[in-house]
Design goal:
This protein is α+β, with helices and mostly antiparallel strands. It contains 4 helices and 4 strands. It has a single domain, classed as Nuclear Transport Factor 2, Chain: A (Roll).
Length: 124
Amino acid sequence: MENKKCFCDTGLLFADCCGLYLEKDQKAPTALALMRSRYSAYATHNADYLLQTTYISERQYYSKAEILKWATSNKWLQLEILFYKENKVEFNAYFLDENKKSQIHHEFSTFKFENGAWFYLEGN
């Protein structure tokens, strides 16, 4: 993935963008950066990262198997950030489902900063 553009649509190379968080173990500096990296984690089927970046009290509601199933059964096409402020991000994630049907996942996500790291708290 060295010379591949990042999945999160910044226009940067994966290695210089979400790859820093997914592969180099750096912490995302903002909720927006975490949101982008989580989208890239779906695109690269990185369920471990998705669980690790979910707020600890919320992890019980997710299973690695279910995350992996959702990530791998869809083809992730594009992330569109609609709005963000410190701990909130509204976005559209465009993908093809397992039947190759075009879908849009619209979400208003809330994040929490704790112990020097951002975590995904919930999405509506």
